Amino acid sequence: xxxxxxxxxxxxxxxxxxxxxxxxxxxxxxRFMYDNxxxxxxxIVEHLAISGEAMGxxxxxxIPLGIWLGHLHRGSFLAINLANIGRALPSLAVIAIxxxxxxxxxxxxxxxxxILAFPLMLTNAYVGVDGVDPDxxxxxxxxxxxxxxxxxxxxxxxxxxxxxxxxxxAAVYVVATATLGxxxxxxxxxxxxxxxxxYFLKGVIAASIRLGSRFNxxxxxxxxxxxxxx
Amino acid sequence: MIFTSAASAPxxxxxxxxxxxxxxxxxxxxxxxxxxxxxxxxxxxxxxxRLLEHLEMTAIAVGIGFAIAFLAALLAHRKHxxxxxxxxxxxxxxxxxxxxxxQLLVPFTGLTMLTIEIGLVGYTLLILxxxxxxxxxxVPEDxxxxxxxxxxxxxxxLFRVELPLAFPAISAGVRIAVVTTISLATVxxxxxxxxxxxxxxxxxxxxFTTEFVATGALAVALALAADTALVALQxxxxxxxxxRRAT
Lengths: 230, 247
What we know:
The structure holds two protein chains of two kinds. By secondary structure, chain A is an all-alpha fold. Helix content of chain A is 77%, strand content 0%. In chain A, helix 2 (37-72) runs parallel beside helix 5 (106-130), helix 2 (37-72) packs antiparallel against helix 7 and helix 6 (134-142) runs antiparallel to helix 7. Chain A is elongated. Chain A starts with 23 loop residues before the first helix and ends with a helix. The termini of chain B are far apart. Chain B has helices spanning 19-22, 36-78, 83-95, 98-109, 113-137, 141-149, 154-188, 197-206, 209-237, 239-246. At the A-B interface, helix 3, helix 4 and helix 9 of A face helix 2, helix 4, helix 7, helix 8 and helix 9 of B.
């Protein structure tokens, strides 16, 4: 490989420090969690901070835009195809490009996560509002409602289940993908998962279990909010 | 930043990356965000081989994943009790973080292509199984009734009626599986230096910006190209869907 091996990983480096795997490794993983509560806690908080920031930014842009386009019944090509493109983009590649643009830190991870979450939310918000029964809107107009009242009192409540389904999917994807932040020093649970040399397989498993429980919490949180609001 | 004199120029960041095009004062020596010279100079020895490896990894993973998911979906279609366990199994595989799964497999299968393929196949199962099964379940009962009334055997019904009608759903599943696998295969290079992830991780280790920016752009382009190609294939193979929309 010649030139290409400059600075490349060598044998015995961080990545190749694998320890053996025994059934007891799973027990060790739980012990690891309870032996290192502050480490786990710090990483979980970092992870949720990065995911939360990305979700917040994506929410603020995607949901109003989706509702507005759905209200006008315009831009279906944009709203639907954007979701397919968003799903196709490899997040690691987006993080790599972002790293070149924004430099090391959490910004490029948040940027990649916003790109991931945005189309999922936009499409669902659009489809939800676009698909509201025209009779309901007709009736509201007949009752003398103004356009903004129709959006807030008719279309938004009826579209909420779909909007929250989009938010839930996006939340699960974002929390899962935020792990890649560990690769570029973005923090979060990925820091433990990519650093097997320091934390060993038990640490990797412990962080993965914690990550799995984040999925459940994020998923059920958005479902509950959705059902409470609608 | 443009350095005018040799005295003010810093030493090249990574001399080996300079090559004949860049020189000590070129973009590469200054470690610019994106140097076209590097892409041109290393297309043959870095980018193109990794791109082909990436395609190979994706094709193998989706091929094997499709074979398993297809058989499982056919079985679940005939015997309904099978749907629950296999669905739960593939959903469980899907929730394991990719970075962790590849590491957990290494003690068993080593730093090999096999480790990557097991992981990638595992992630395709849920997508393909659900889509194939949804396609088969979506065939209207009347159509099946008519086919049976015409005297078609069970096998003929499957190949001449059910599978063609399920094709749009199945190809939609393949499309999602392919783009997901292309994305996950970049992460797989964390374990074994294969595919487009390798120059990305390598670039991250060396701080040579162009390597990971260019490879990242190439991976994005590959994913979009694959997605577009599959849409085109789906369009070409389902003339009846177009005919129905036109009327």
